[in-house]
Predict the 3D structure of the following.
Amino acid sequence: MTHSSKAIVLSIEKFGEADCYIRFLTQKWGVISTLAKSARKSKKRYIGGLDLFCHNEIFLRGDPKDRPYLLELTVINSFPQIRESLEKVMIAGKAVQWIKKLADVPTPMPNLYSLLGQTLALIEKETNIERLDLLVLVFKLKLLSFLGLSPQLEKCARCSGDLDNSAVFDLSSGGAVCQTCISGQSFQSFHLRTEQRMILSVAEKMKMPQWDSFLVAQEQVIPLSHLLTQFASFHTQILLPV
Ligand SMILES: [Zn+2]
């Protein structure tokens, strides 16, 4: 029985003399591992599609969730421009790491598959390297949203009251907290200005095709991105790449 799905390469692991295990985020089955026989001897069958980040149509034999054989593949996009830039490789690698750490399960997650595919396509196209940090911020927010781990940003995470410029971001409360609720308990919390809260809100809701018109000052991006990493690590107890 042959199965096929669109899939993105998350990792490649050598196995024995000539074989490889390839981990894919697939459109149909979530994250799965496949055995590519003789991948290192004969590249013919898998022509150009076994590199990290490659977006392929893959054909499998066996149960997709039980280490099937990778029969062959067709490359949809190998993202050559990501490979030409160390910065782009690092950024794309970060996105892949987040998926491997938080969503490494053979459960259909077509939203995640689309998110990673769209993110890689934008990394490929982006000419302003500085903007890649913002793209990672958007990616993290959307990934957390799909996983049901979004930080609360619209209302106080404790009392559901309105938030103003004195709000703080409190890891254990699950997001933004008003001044009244936080008084006396500043452990693991950071001042979160209204402007910063808005950036996070807009980034989470933004549709990927609107990427070119989403502009945020670079100095705003890094602290917010770090904050999200801390937030996600705190709630999943998984150490995530910044
Ligand atoms: Zn409150």
Q: What stands out?
A: The chain has seven helices and eight strands. The mean pLDDT is 94.
